[in-house]
Amino acid sequence: MSTSSISRTVPPTADVVIVGGGVMGTSIAFHLAEAGVSDIVVVDRGELGSGSSGKPIGGVRAQFSDPLNIALGSRSLRAWQEFGQRPGADIRLDGVGYLFVLTSDQQAADFETSVRIQNGLGVPSRMIGPREAQALCPYLSTDGLVAAAYSPTDGHARPGLAVRGYARAAARAGVTFATHTTVTGLDTTADRVTAVHTDHGRISAATVICAAGAWSARLGEMAGVHLPVRPVRRQLAFTAPLAPPAPRIPFTIDFDSTAYFHNSDDGLLFGLADPGQADGFDTTWTPDWLTLFRAAARRRAPALADMETSGGWAGLYEVTPDHNALIGRAGTPHNFLYATGFSGHGFLQAPAVGEIVRDLHLERTPFVDVTPFSADRFTTGAETRPEIHVV
Fold first, then answer.
1. Once rounded to an integer, what is the mean pLDDT over residues 27-46?
2. What whole-number distance in Å separates Cα of residue 369 and Cα of residue 279?
3. Residue 132 buriedness (CB in 10 A; 0-12 / 13-18 / 19+)
4. Rounded CA gap, 227 and 219, in Å?
5. What residues does 204 pair with on adjacent strands?
6. pTM higher than 0.90 for the full model?
7. What is the H or E stretch that residue 198 is in?
8. What distance in Å separates the CA atoms of residue 103 and residue 83, rounded to the nearest whole number?
9. β-bridge pairing 40-43 and 259-264
10. What span, in angstroms and rounded, lies between the C-alpha atoms of 322 and 94?
11. N or C, where is the chain less crowded by C-beta within 10 Å?
């Protein structure tokens, strides 16, 4: 989609205004338009996919500990596999599997429980021993390895291609995309949002959907809805081209340190969640975090520790207090819906969440009950659901 075809002024009215043009916003727009909803406007402060969805490679998996996340991951995995037909785009999906390597008996016991739940929901994950883990990923050292969890149908794809695939199909169905357009305020009367103010004009709106990722808390405040989402920078790096080429390996995660690595074009991609990273919207890439990755690699995959890197990338996780998403309809204003706070697993859940938000908007029953992901769980004392498969 060329930017020239994208609106620089906003339409005066819309049935649905979606704030956020990342993979979540474009998935919601596609699913709504496919269901016959007309007059949809997607507003994004930058280019489409310029926020958290801009990451070069995104993991796709159904390996989670919470049955709701397993259901969202599993449903989405099928949609990613069929993306070439619907909506019709190549997202460079590589079904290499996901391999979580575990270094304590407690981790192994927790993952065994998760695998049982996953298997009960049709996910073909299994526990394997250190030697089989090393056979799947030859970089691994078995020293100190207790077990691993592996699911062969997981893998990775390109979020940027997914955003463009959803956006092109949505645009063909009549969706308007207003990029480089910042939301400056919302009008609310009684229990409804009535308009969205932007720096390119005002849109009278029948429904507003927040898919603003790391920027969602501020939009929620404008609507009077508490969306406890904080931005946390995450960084990754690419190796220089490898000769001989890297073997084809699963998306491999050292669960203890959160260090992860997988194939990327002519080398490998490295990542790690820096526990000392302060909250904030800064996305400057600062390669000093690589010392943490190299220290973890020395223990778990020694050959990676001294590989030369050639640049990297920084983006934002949108983190909630229990590392689970916020999906639902606000009590007040009643026409404000939200899908945000995915804490690092938004890309992989985007197809399923697009379906769910479509159904919430049309007042249909979604394929899975997302009530436990309601944003008010943090204010009403409802049970939170900590997700342990978080990187």
1. 97
2. 31
3. middle
4. 8
5. 13, 195
6. yes
7. strand 192-198
8. 36
9. unpaired
10. 29
11. N
Instruction: Look up tokens 């639902």; give the residue.
Output: 328
Is the Cβ–Cβ distance between 39 and 228 less than 8 Å? no
pLDDT at 202 over 70: yes
> Measured between alpha carbons, how far is 27 from 91 in angstroms, rounded to an integer?
14
Helix (H, G, I), strand (E, B) or coil at 339: strand
Using CA atoms, how far apart are residues 301 and 233, in angstroms rounded to an integer? 24
What is the Cα–Cα distance from 316 to 232, expressed in whole angstroms?
A: 5
Which tokens belong to 20? 């956020």
C-alpha distances in Å from residue 301, one per residue of 129, 130, 133, 234, 260? 16, 13, 12, 21, 10
Tokens found for residue 106: 């407690």
Q: Provide the token pair at 194.
A: 């009535």
Beta strand pairing call for 251-254 and 98-102:
parallel
Tokens of 10: 């906003």
The arithmetic mean of pLDDT across residues 263-271, rounded, is 95
Residue 227, amino acid = L
Q: For residue 374, what are the CA distances in angstroms to 321, 330, 334?
A: 13, 8, 13
